[in-house]
Model the fold of this input.
Amino acid sequence: MNTNVAREKKYSDLDLGFRINPVTGNIAKKTDVESIKQSVLNILLTNPGERPFDPNFGCDIRSLLFENFDSLVASVLEDKILLALSNYEPRVRVLDLVVDETPDRNAITFTLEVEIVSPERTITDISFAVERLR
Done:
């Protein structure tokens, strides 16, 4: 009798904060949902041209920070985010995306509800803000 058990996919990545695992002394790693959240943020907060050998990688959301925020700018931001994630993160499917201006912080806040494409079909939220520094 042949019993083949499919190994469940487990996503993992280095913790980009370079924290040290207190048990092993190695750089800590993020797994599953946290790994995918880190990947999504990495894609969305990278400007095209920043990554060597892949000039198209990233999402050009910082270029619209100094524009007057209206429904057109929000729509362009949503399109850029959806395109970047569809091109570079096949493990997620965006269910909902909300783009809000936060004028008291000179920032734009993004809230994504994503489904992680895996056997468990996990749904999670990813929220972050991009701020103007000057």
Summary: Residues 12-131 form a domain with the Nuclear Transport Factor 2; Chain: A, fold (CATH 3.10.450.40). The longest helix spans residues 71-88. The chain has one domain: 12-131. The chain has a mean pLDDT of 86.
